[in-house]
Amino acid sequence: MPAIRRRLKTGTGLSWGTSMLFVLPALVLFAVFVLYPLLTALSYSFFSWRGIVRDDFVGLENYVTVFTQLPYKDEVGNAFAHNFLLFIGAMVFQNTIGLLIATLLHRIGRMKRFFQTIYTLPYLVSPLVIGYLWSLMLSPLFGPVNALLKAIGLGDLAQPWLGNPSTAIWVVVLVTAWQWIGFPILMYGAALGGIAEEIDEAASLDGATSWQRFRSITLPLLVPAIGTVSILTFIGAMESFPIPYALGGSTGSPAGATDVMSLLFYRTAFESGSTNAIGVSSAIAMLLFLVIFGVAVLMRWLLDTRERKMF
Amino acid sequence: MKRNTLRMAGIVAAGALALTGCAPSSSSSEESGEDVTLTVWSWRTEDIEQYNRIFDVYEEAHPGVTIEFEAFLNTEYNQLLTTGLSGSDGPDVAMVRSYGGLQGWVSAGQLVALEDKVEGLDAIEPAVLAGAKGHEDGKIYAVPFATQTLQMFYNKTLFDELGLEEPTTWDEFIALNEKLLAEGVTPMALGAKDSWVLPIFADIIGAGRYGATDFEAAVLSGEKNFTDADYVASLQLVADMQKYLSPDVVGVGYTDSQIQFTSGLAAQYPGGTFELTTFKTQAPDMELGVYQVPLPPQAKADQPVTPAYADGGFAINSASKHQEEAAELLNWIASKEFAQLFADELSMFSAIPGVEYKDELLQEMWDLYTASPASYLLLVNFRYGEPQGTAVLGEGVQQLFLGELDAAGLAQKLQTGVDQWFVPGE
């Protein structure tokens, strides 16, 4: 018994070699499918290319190209801005409506499973399919959305949703948020289930209102879950590809209004026909990776600091 | 990032699988020493049967040679072929893209120059053959197999019902569109949400106005550029056409526009020959007609034109172990026999001259084209660098339709874009 306690204190019950053995399978998979391609892309971005033949080492020239040459210099800022908009949109959507639904589901209890399943369904369908279905629904010629608006006397609101730059990006934001909503509902649902009811009851006996209890007890205890959801949402939003692709095509139609970084990467790598496509697209991919990695680490650090303050 | 690299890894893996799939056939030919299997790669998954029938003819005339025709998804073909050409068991002969799309494989040394190996290439229309040339060395790397022409399709049945006729002057063209508007029919279907259709539309409407081949020569030599008043005027015509398109045209996708036309909601369709199969499948009973858009006032061309471009070619993998047999196959592909079979089986224009088209409409389009040929300017000449002319104009015409740019601004945008890499007179 004392031996176990001592071991627990050191944080591990296994020798270094044994723990490595357990980590190994995951490490191998990670190295082969994540680390190796990542390092390959990094090395590619420092060379100029003729088709698939590697040419000279050019240092940062491909990165300079992204910021100084057409079409990249016009498109990269626009695309990044749209990625951040997707992130903000998803955050607003899931931390208000998502959290509300999760809280309500937690309280009703009875039909919880059923509703959780319903809300999570879009999350289980391929985003490419989701995007395509929405593009059909929003078609100005045959789409049911405009037809419905006209049928109920709101014809003035009928729009070329995906043909108007000022509505198109919001369609992408909302469709993305709509698809993702099941994920925060599940996460928050689990986190809510983990909060001891005694705390809530005690506060209730002390006369705290329902809002006070949510504001001062539930919400702070949800911070770790919100943090995890936020980071995953950020990564998802920055990598966003299938939904913008299905809604606006590879060019981010109309006139770049729905362009995102992955589309820029895709166009550069697979559609440009440029002889140096591999060099420039690798640079774009690395930039995207640096932003995702950097911000994700920063967010994690901020959350850790905040959580430490709380407990 | 992670997903992208994974996707690339997936593509490579798929390519490797495809390669192992065809490996046994090539190795068995070496063992026997006589029989040769030539693997031919293509992106035309929809034409596998037709190509098999075409190559059956070749196999009959060449005992001991087996052609294995393999088609891959169009959108993934470039990556698959790039992987295939870099491996040891790639295809012997492959369909390759034209113009700018060909250059990556050429500059990587993955294709064989054909001048000394294939006869009959000089009979091909220069603008079409240009699509098969290496941009840097000017050598021919492929036998072009198809030409696409751009023109206005119309629904003859609908025209007859409304008592309308093919326009022969600009005034008639405008009157026709006004009449259609008044009848509640969308005059032209256009999928402006997919920006690649827009440079095609611009050339169908405006090539005659800016002076087609003369302007092309002037731009290539550096005598003129896209900010030229005539080119700007041609873009203004494109802007003027907006009232004859769907009200929300920038929201209309390419496939929606096809349905719009084949279902009779729109009377005309500015497009390429490649639309024909879709039209015939979607509306087998619709009678189709074609015409060249008449010359507008102040047009620089002296007759209406049909812009055209080469739509790919067959090339030899420089790593193929059967160079001789592959060259022989390409000689046959450059022959009139193949061209006629190709035209009959696939209802497309062969790049080889002297072919008769059974389909009257095809023959009519071909006659229109040969009477006054032109290049699809931006695709033929301005896809050799980044940004590509077609991409800049495509996005720009969307901005034109959305009111974010005017014709002069669009012309300037195009010029600024191509200025980055295009050197006149080269």
Can you give me a brief rundown of this structure?
With 311 residues, chain A is mainly alpha-helical. Chain A is built from 14 helices and two strands.
Summarize the structure in words:
The complex is a heterodimer of chains A (311) and B (426). Chain A has 311 residues and is an all-alpha fold. Chain A has a single domain, classed as MetI-like fold. Helix content of chain A is 76%, strand content 3%. Chain A is built from 14 helices and two strands, in the order H-H-E-E-H-H-H-H-H-H-H-H-H-H-H-H. A two-stranded antiparallel sheet of chain A has the order 1-2. Chain A is globular, with a radius of gyration of 24 Å. The N terminus of chain A is likely disordered. Chain B has two domains: 188 residues, 3-Layer(aba) Sandwich (D-Maltodextrin-Binding Protein, domain 2); 202 residues, 3-Layer(aba) Sandwich (D-Maltodextrin-Binding Protein, domain 2). Helices cover 48% and strands 13% of the residues of chain B. Chain B is built from 18 helices and eleven strands. In chain B, strands 5, 6, 7, 8, 9 and 11 form a six-stranded mixed β-sheet that branches. In chain B, strand 1, helix 2 and strand 2 form a beta-alpha-beta unit. In chain B, helix 1 crosses helix 3. The two termini of chain B are 39 Å apart. The N terminus of chain B is likely disordered. Chains A and B meet through helix 2, helix 13 and helix 14 of A and helix 1, helix 3, helix 4, helix 11 and helix 17 of B.
